[in-house]
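Database export, one record per block. Field names are fixed; values are copied verbatim from the stored entry.
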Amino acid sequence: MMADNPTLKLSAARNLHLAAQGLLTPPAKNATKKQLLATIRQMAALQIDTINVVARSPYLVLWSRLGSYETVWLNELLEEGKLFEYWSHEACFLPIEDYYLYRHQMIAPHGLGWKFNQRWLLENKKEVELVRKQIHSNGASRSLDFAKRDGKAGGWWEWKPEKRSLEVLFTMGELMVAKRHNFQRVYDLRERVHPKWEDQHDLIHPLECQRQQVLLAVKALGCAKATWITDYFRMAKLDASNQAAALAEQGLLLTANVAGWDTPVYVHPDHADLLEQAAEGNLKATATQILSPFDPVVWDRKRAIELFDFDYKLECYTPAEKRRYGYFSLPILRRGAIIGRMDAKAHRQQGRFEVKSLHMEAEVKISATLVRDVIGSITKFAQWHGTPELDLSSLKTTEFYHNNS
């Protein structure tokens, strides 16, 4: 029987985290749509990003866990009402059963967030009402269904008024994303997309929502320092009653120690068996996978440093001359460690997957087995992506090199 507050080796804590994230062992063959939904539920949030130099991030995050699968399943699950979109860690696909955790944010004035403030509603009442009327009368609509009047395109500050109104109404919960068409949002009324929800019956207190999100974050993380928890869903400061230590005192969380750390980690009771296996050294990491920059394993830079000793920053927003690892470098996970990163580009029309650079962490020992594992994972990704020709010609050498070389 496992002792209270067991002490884990750092490698065991990593493996517990990877097990909770579905990344401990290689994917099984013949993934199904049901498994895809289960994978999103396991992570609790699938971050959305539109950069597509390789597969768009949500598809890559799922591939890392499922292997080859049909990307259309993600939109099908959204259309079927098993998923919804909202602001969580960032914009995310979320399990529909967790809608209640976010509803109070939608209807509270402060829930609009820094990107979507009430000034827009007050200063653009006419535009907002036109958007409301069109969707009420004409049904689900894209931003493209509204005429562009100002000739501008680009980010938030250059969105046409209708697009900004759609996003504000989405953030307020008046609209939901009914589906995506060519990865663009199609908006419809909340009551048509999620007709089962009734505020007067289904709302729960925000503090209880916060508590449930803390528990869900710890479960998704496998093991978590208290300082890691709020980032997972970008939560505000926790109420004292919802601090991890308080929840552990109530028996809602388990505690453990990690050798060399001066603060405990917390584990969800649903992972008690995994914790016992980790403590006994029986969780073995065998997967080698390419990760998205927006994978939950690395989206918190501080956590990635503390848990994996991996300092990761996405450099696509950094001027080209200042980039160290490339525009869209992808972390490489191998057997419980993040061993390096790859900058790549998929040339879809040519069926060619270009590996621009490979950087191994300084302490990684290069071996034939490591090379086989990494190239094998890259090859599988390229094949699934529809770019089966693996192009290594951009590398300084066809072998790996360390990031300090």
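Remark 1: Residues 120 and 165 are 8 Å apart (CA to CA).
Remark 2: Residues 153-158 have pLDDT under 50 and may be disordered.
End of record.
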